[in-house]
Amino acid sequence: MRxxxxxxxxxxxxxxxxxxxxxxxxxxxxxxxxLSFCQSGDVLIHFGDICIGNDEDVHRxxxxxxxxxxxxxxxxxxxxxxxxxxxxxxWTWVGSLMxxxxxxxxxxxxxxPQPWHSEEEWDLNIxxxxxxxxxxxxxxxxxxxxxFIRDEAQLVDRVIQGQSRHVLLALEYTGYQPVLxxxxxxxxxxxxxxxxxxxxxxxxx
Length: 205
Ligand SMILES: [Fe+2]
Ligand SMILES: [Fe+2]
Hints:
This protein is α/β, with parallel strands linked by helices and 205 residues long. 27% of the residues lie in helices and 20% in strands. It has helices spanning 16-20, 26-37, 55-63, 83-88, 153-161, 181-195, and strands at 3-6, 43-46, 70-74, 93-95, 97-102, 105-110, 124-127, 166-168, 179-180, 201-203.
């Protein structure tokens, strides 16, 4: 069984073209990516921000037709329906945070980056929400500039205090394709080994 991850699909949100430079056909690209990536028995995790309004139609068109064995939703700030509504519309698990152990790492899955307090809690926090706020070439800036995130200083502070334990998944950087959870974890571990505490967040591209 593979665990396939996506985030911030923002279906029914045409302003994403303007806000994040997405192509005008991003809705289909995201959906087709999820469809073609799926293998028998795969589980899908969505790190939140499914759509902006029109929830019924979006779920009928995009969520319920995806052939994943299970679909797990880690709620984002735009996912405002009740848990039972999501369970009735294609999701088999809904929550705000998901903690588990994957590939030897204690992993926290969330929409927004989580605060890190001590080594008792988790090794990696894989999250979404920032989109391409780190600019067009995040890999060119291993220290990750704060420049592009204007209104969410407290979230940036969480990343800074996390000492290289945060991994950002943003569709703008992955060509609108999903990524295996195994890849996200391995990239987070490799980044920490390579950069120590000098790279604030590993951006998956
Ligand atoms: Fe988002
Ligand atoms: Fe968000």
